[in-house]
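I hope you will forgive my troubling you with a question about protein structure. I am sending you one protein, given as its amino acid sequence and as whole-number tokens for its backbone shapes. Thank you for your consideration; the sequence and its tokens are set out here:
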Amino acid sequence: MRQLLNPSHDPYFNMALEEYLVTQTDPGSEWFMLWQNKPTVVVGRHQNTGEEVNESFIVTKGIKVVRRMSGGGAVYHDLGNLNFTFVVNVSANRSLARFAQPVIKALHKLGVEAQISGRNDLTIAGRKFSGNAQFIGKNRLLHHGTLLFATDLDIMQQALTVNPVKMASKGVKSVRSRVTNIAYHLPDPVSIDVFKKTLSETISEYWPNEPARGLTEEEKAIVTQRAVDKYNSWEWNYGQSPQYDLRHQARYPWGQFDIRLELRKGRIAVCKIYGDFFTVKEIETLEKALQGILYNQKEILKLLESLDLSAYIPEMDAQQWLKLIMGNESS
């Protein structure tokens, strides 16, 4: 595995760099990177940004907003948070445990006991300090996660706008009460740089690393241009939310769904599916498949049964999608 040294704190550059590693490096290469962002809200691939951030607060505080490649929910980054990224060849083992074990072991070395919790979290004493997400593209798997080390949790809570249904499902009243910093649990204080070094060394015990290197000037230029063209654009980070006639929401164990439909002459003209779910195949292809279909149960079910729905959300079958689209699923 190749370790990439990335000193950038620019969220647009860092998102573009992840895309570069997945799409433009040698298909047989595998990568590992530790990195940080200046204060930023990073929204999931399928989320409606305007509903995830406290816009007036982040503007006042100069907090950036960027959309990532992977699904899942919005997270807050600052220089008290450390991010880790793996880019590996797709295999049968996409489990969180595969990528979380080095983190858990590194923390154990520092005297902190951590656990895997739920579909994508790591916790200490029942409180979340790490959220994880994945993106799959052309036989490459991107797995990345946050590590709250000494993040300003009060700023984090004010920057994020969290759906109350999600909070209720977690049995808590606020983001602040549900998360923690690693630093709070260390028996002996260490800096984030010491933690970073410990984690890097521990990862090499699981995946032997080649000598670490930085980006070449040519690679920097490619990534910088991608950051400008895509990740620092309003179109990517916010985009136009469609006008809609119908809006249906539901929460499942695998995520929150918010589907919006614009109807013309009884047919679905525009379909947009928001949420903090994870997909295997791009959800946009399902949105496009629904466009033009008559908005009735028989026609929609016929279409759904003709599609490989497990390629989108493996846990959802045609009947569940139908209930969500028709508004028959409780939130």
